[in-house]
Amino acid sequence: MRVLHFAAFALPLLVSASLNEQSVFLPPSTIPPEQSMTTPDYTPLTHTRPTLADLLTIEPSASIYYSYARDTELSKEFNAADQYLTLLVPTNKAVMAQPRKPHQGRVSSEPQIELSEQQFDEQSQRNIYRWVSAHIIPTHVSLSNLPVTYDTMLQGKSVTFIPSLDGDAPEWARVTLEDGTRIVGMKKGMNGVVYLIDGIVNPY
């Protein structure tokens, strides 16, 4: 009899303790905002027009220039949205026609000394930077009043645009560079314009 009285007294206490130890889960609608595990709304950055980097990526005839540019810090500027660049991009055919490649630099009249591998790499990088920067004008280029000259990103190097043809051709197709190099294509991006050229800008 005493056992029954004890069980009747202890059972409510055990049930209460068991309930207190259980975790309480709130339905999703009652979870406070600061406790919610959901990811905040994310709006990706989108551009209505491609960047210069995008244009060079999808332009097969510019792959050599872009390959050299990606070896320099200058290529970061091709994605920057806070500035405007004009790129004079030699076609692959124009680059391959040169007797010396961009990383080789110009022929020196001084006696050649043997370079270590590190010295050779450093010299090649300087040559590439010089060549790539000579083809970048750090501003918008207006071709409506020719001839006109613009400085490039290579210190001391400028490019002059000269009128060439009249007629119904696009404005960019009616000019040449001072050495006779022609613009053979044009693509506009959100942060600049790419002019494809059938020659190179000599960085020396």
Provide a quick synopsis of the model.
The longest helix has 20 residues, at 2-21. This protein is 27% helix and 17% strand. It contains 5 helices and 7 strands, in the order αααβααββββββ.
Walk me through the topology.
Blueprint: H1 2-21, H2 52-58, H3 63-69, E1 85-90, H4 92-96, H5 117-133, E2 136-137, E3 148-151, E4 158-163, E5 175-177, E6 183-189, E7 192-197
Parallel strand pairs: 1-7
Antiparallel strand pairs: 1-2, 3-4, 4-5, 6-7
Description:
- The chain has 204 residues and is of the alpha+beta class.
- 27% of the residues lie in helices and 17% in strands.
- It is built from five helices and seven strands, in the order H-H-H-E-H-H-E-E-E-E-E-E.
- The strands form two sheets. It has a four-stranded mixed beta sheet with strand order 2-1-7-6. Strands 3-4-5 form a three-stranded antiparallel beta sheet, with no helix packed on it.
Total beta-strand segments: 7
CATH topology of one domain: FAS1 domain
Query: What is the count of helical runs?
Result: 5
Shape: globular
CATH architect. name of one domain: Roll
Q: How do the strands line up in the largest sheet?
A: 2-1-7-6
CATH class of one domain: Mainly Beta
Strand content: 15-25%
Distance between the termini: 112 Å
CATH superfamily of one domain: FAS1 domain
Mean pLDDT: 82
Tell me roughly what share of residues is in helical segments.
Answer: 25-40%
Output the helix-strand order: HHHEHHEEEEEE
Pfam families: Fasciclin
Keywords: Signal
InterPro entries: FAS1_dom_sf, FAS1_domain, Mug57-like
Protein name: FAS1 domain-containing protein
